[in-house]
Amino acid sequence: MKLEHLPQEFELARPVLQTIEQAGYEAYFVGGSVRDTILGKAIHDVDIATSAYPKEIKGLFKRTVDTGIEHGTVMILDHGTGYETTTFRSESTYTDFRRPDQVTFVRSLAEDLKRRDFTINALAMRENGEVIDLFDGLTDLQQKRIRAVGNAQERFHEDALRMMRAVRFASQLDFTIVPDTLAAITDHAQLLAKIAVERTQVELLKLLTGKTPQRGVTDMLATGLWQYCPDFAPHETAIRDLAQRLTHGVSSDIAAWTLLTTAFGLDTPAITTFMKHWKTANQAINAVQTANKTATLLGQGDLSDWQLYQCGRQLIATANEVAVILGAPDRRASLTERLAALPIRNKKELAVTGKDLMQAGIQPGPQLGAILGDLEYRVVTGSVANDRAALVAQATTE
Ligand code: ATP
Ligand code: MG
């Protein structure tokens, strides 16, 4: 197969491949960008595989960055774009079910493609658009199938993260994992527990934000992978229910966490524990706690103005999105409209400050904070106008 019209990203990268080839080495486009181009999807980063060793690559280009030189990866900087360029490798011994103990550079493309995870990810493309397909990846792409390269049992035993990658590609691409590969995932599911949770997290989020998470979640249930995700084990019923409901992906990572924690019925402290086990960023925890609270309320009925205000503009769409997935009516338009119509949208818009209140004779300290909080509530709920004099009067008459 030869692609006649390459996307702009590849056109721009062609001179890079040509430079490597003119020096007597082989160089190919590989990985997700080749797969996604054949699928007619937009591509983001263009990866290159080459027979040249890292130091040889560095000798050929003016500007390179050692992004992962011990794995053979050098980034070539060209016209302001970075190209991850990795020397052909064969990965031999794995003792811990995660990363190979050693990376062996080889000069053969076939060796390199053999160590890749799925046939659809093991395609290579020359700079002229010619596709090299040693494992029938093109047929699998056409038939929408995910199939391990080589012996599936061995491949998941070598690297257990590949199992999560399989279910996330099923979701992102709306593909079916072939029976043999699915069976091998079932056999090795418990090895997922050996994988660094940060890496599992990346795949889980890609799955939930993918095109058909229903597929990915169903595959996780069928293979048992779900049991080896942190804190999933007590929530089988909720996960089975989600597998039915997730007919399309959630719009963000925050929405994904909000969905899981709301479906699992976690309260605020339980969300902290859950997200810490998943090693998420701390600021994500706060956002999820807020969105979760609001989504839970939306599951029970409409929000009061105060509840709406507390959720805030940034998270109201997320909370509504999650509530809708879990069966609530879609109130997005009315919530957004009501939020915009509130007297204030956040504390900063309150017409009075702590300083104003101190000038009016109120002592600093926790009480001052409580008074400000009360004024905020009164303004939001409409019992006092957002007017400095009115607010000071309200504060000093109590
Ligand atoms: P995405 O579009 O999400 O970037 P991708 O297929 O490019 O998808 P990457 O994680 O960027 O995924 O990996 C690039 C390529 O490296 C893959 O297409 C695959 O060939 C190979 N690869 C990545 N991770 C593994 C793995 N764990 N085992 C074997 N091959 C892998
Ligand atoms: Mg990629």
CATH fold assignment of the largest domain: Beta Polymerase, domain 2
Strand content: 5-15%
CATH class of the largest domain: Alpha Beta
| Mean pLDDT, all residues | 95
Shape designation: elongated
Number of helices: 20
Q: Could you explain the architecture of this structure?
A:
This protein is α+β, with helices and mostly antiparallel strands and about 400 residues long. It folds into four domains: about 1-145, 2-Layer Sandwich (Beta Polymerase, domain 2); about 145-245, Hydrophobic Seed Protein (Orthogonal Bundle); about 250-340, Up-down Bundle (Methane Monooxygenase Hydroxylase, Chain G, domain 1), CATH 1.20.58; about 350-395, Orthogonal Bundle (Serum Albumin, Chain A, Domain 1). Helix content is about 50%, strand content about 10%. The chain contains 20 helices and eleven strands. The strands form three sheets. A seven-stranded mixed sheet has the order 3-4-5-2-1-8-9. Helix 6 (about 150-160) runs parallel beside helix 8 (about 180-190), helix 12 (about 255-265) packs across helix 14 (about 280-300) and helix 13 packs across helix 14. The longest helix is centred in the last third of the chain and has 19 residues, at about 280-300. The chain is elongated. The mean pLDDT is about 95. Bound molecules: adenosine-5'-triphosphate and magnesium ion (MG).
